[in-house]
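Subject: sequence -> structure tokens, single chain

Hey, anyone have a minute? Need the predicted structure for the following. Not urgent.
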Amino acid sequence: MKNKLVFILFAGLLSYMPFALADKAIFAGGCFWCMESDFEKLEGVTNVISGFTGGTVQNPTYRGNHAGHYEAVVITYDPAKVSYQDLLDHFWVNIDPFDDKGQFCDKGHEYLSAIFVKNETEKLLAEQSRNKVVEQFPKQKVVTPILDAATFWPIKGKESYHQDYYKNNPVRYKFYRFNCGRDKRLKEIWGDKVTQ
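Reply:
Had a minute. Here:
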């Protein structure tokens, strides 16, 4: 009886707490400025951090050694408002899944697209979502891999200006995004599904 009462009190307390239980997802889609901008538009996403993942170099930096890493974002989200499946759907229409050299005007390993999964549920959902894209484009090769999550290294220190770049430097960001041809290419691939 005592344990049941404690559980009921705890459950009641949780319902009044001013925060939601959060989860995290990691995606690489080329320029992390753009990925931040694209994902922060989603209701239920509470934070997006730019950084590197997927490589073996410790403490990678933008201007220093980040060999083998992907430019990526870690997305904190409220699963009661936006699901992992919603994030996957949003991810695909904000990348070029056929580019095996990078993304848009940015070329090189660090700009490749990828989905980083941390458990079997995410892996299954990611594979199903990738299969849908493959079926949708039978004449093109989808090259975006699904990889096991690795250490995520946020951009920090002197390079912190990369965080929220699109908010802090809106004119430069828009100029870069336009010149890179990102939105034009996304429209060519995804049509009305693009989420600009």
